Amino acid sequence: MKTLNDYMAMSYRMEIVEDKDEGGFVVSYPDLPGCITCGETVESAVANALDAKKAWLEAALEDGVEIHEPDSLEDYSGQFKLRIPRSLHRSLAEHSQREGISMNQYCVYLLSRNDAVFSK
């Protein structure tokens, strides 16, 4: 059975979001449901997050709550197949050619740009 120190040593993904309404920053750990805190600055929010992570893990261990290990990028290949209409394929090919990059690079650019929009 893993100990508190074992879990604290694991690299849980931390999400930091600026709170535009209240000010400061909100930090959460997606793999630790309900583990959330905040701080006036990014630095204080991260420090508070480490304290919150420790308190969350202590409580989970004490209460016998299942603790999931962090999601790993090793679980993802970075590749997927996608079927698209021929007209969209042509449009993507034309746009990427105008930009002087491969269609793969152009699609990664479009996906990352839109992912940034949806992450807000």
From TrEMBL:
- What sequence ranges are listed for the domain HicB-like antitoxin of toxin-antitoxin system? 17-78
- Provide the GO biological process annotations: regulation of DNA-templated transcription
- A Pfam family this protein belongs to? HicB_lk_antitox
The domain of life for this entry's organism is Bacteria
Q: InterPro entries this protein is in?
A: Arc_rbn_hlx_hlx, HicB-like, Ribbon_hlx_hlx, TA_system_antitoxin, TTHA1013/TTHA0281-like
Supply the name of the protein.
HicB-like antitoxin of toxin-antitoxin system domain-containing protein
- Species: Roseburia hominis (strain DSM 16839 / JCM 17582 / NCIMB 14029 / A2-183)
